[in-house]
Amino acid sequence: MKKRLLVRPAALLPALALTGCGLLPGQAGDTRTVTVWLMKGSASDAFLERFTGTYERENPGVRLEIVIQEWTGIGKKISTALAGETPPDVIEVGNTQVAQYAETDRLFDLTLESVRDLGHEEWLPGLAEPGSIDGSQYGIPWYAANRVVVYRKDLFARAGIEEPPKTREQWLKDTERINRTGAEGIYLAGQDWYTLAGFVWDEGGELAEEKNGRWAGTLHTPAALRGMEFYKDLQSLGSGPKDADEENPPQTEVFAKGEVAQIIATPGAATAIEGLNPDLADELGFFPIPGRTADQPCAVFTGGSDLVIPVQAPERGAAIEVVKALAGEKWQTDLARTMNYVPNKTTLAAAVEGQEGTAAMAAGAARGRATPNSPRWADVEADNPIKPYMTAVLQGRDPEAAALAASKSITEALGG
How much is the pTM? Predict the structure, then answer.
């Protein structure tokens, strides 16, 4: 089947378009074009070629036009497209962005398809929950990624640690044990708030909660404070700065240059580390972030993407079938193995067995969460009060007072 690059209008970013031809049964000469916006880096060219070629062969009369978009500036671009009369038929959005688009009333309600065709009860909660607004499913989970512990097997062995810890208590003990060998047990920046969120959720707390239609910050609750307390204990076992996040300096660079035993990151960090220090290629391992008890890992923030369909999609019926295929077992398995992602269902975790980093992600993703499902959560992150709160606690300020101030800022940002 012939593939070609389509020349897009200047208003669109450069795009890879994979095309085909065919006939719908009973509709000779009628070919429907389903336009799909996907984000750069979400799927390889090889995956898109396999999917497009197979889908078009199995669905004569449907032509897929896959347009690759950049993440920078995508929010405004999608909002503009949704407001228009001829938006794309399918759009990939970040899982935490669904709420802001659903608020426009321009996303198609996919609840029926979720229940009838897509096995919604098996979806990863960190993808499914942010796609559900007021009981309606607007975002269909596509893929997930989350943080794990990336560690050096040689430094663990030197400390006499035979297997990764499975509880937070043992994790602290093992990290202290590594420190006694002269290595750095863990590098954890003071403002890694996504990691903090996991500890807060693991204690039963929340970053913010909705009550009677109004959102309020909840970092000052006892459960959330316990999560921060554990973060402080863990962070104190390394040299991570108390007033910066994991990108300042990039933690992968710190890990690669010194004798650091652990960082908390997605498995993809290993590629960057190996690029900086090829000698570590055979020493890197992965394990899920330990939980309070050994029977389950810590809750984690689940990043990833959902697929949405605009109400005004020109080929909405055909678009729904494309989404079903992308979210179905066959192509989920292919995508996970190709891109080292976590599939959208807990029942598909076996698809990544043998891939140590991805398998560790999948174990954590079963307890994955997303940020509060408010359409205004982006306003919180724009001037994130959680980061200075963390620094204040790590530098010795009273945790309750700092948390109350941060909760107030979150409440104001959410319009509460």
Answer: 0.86
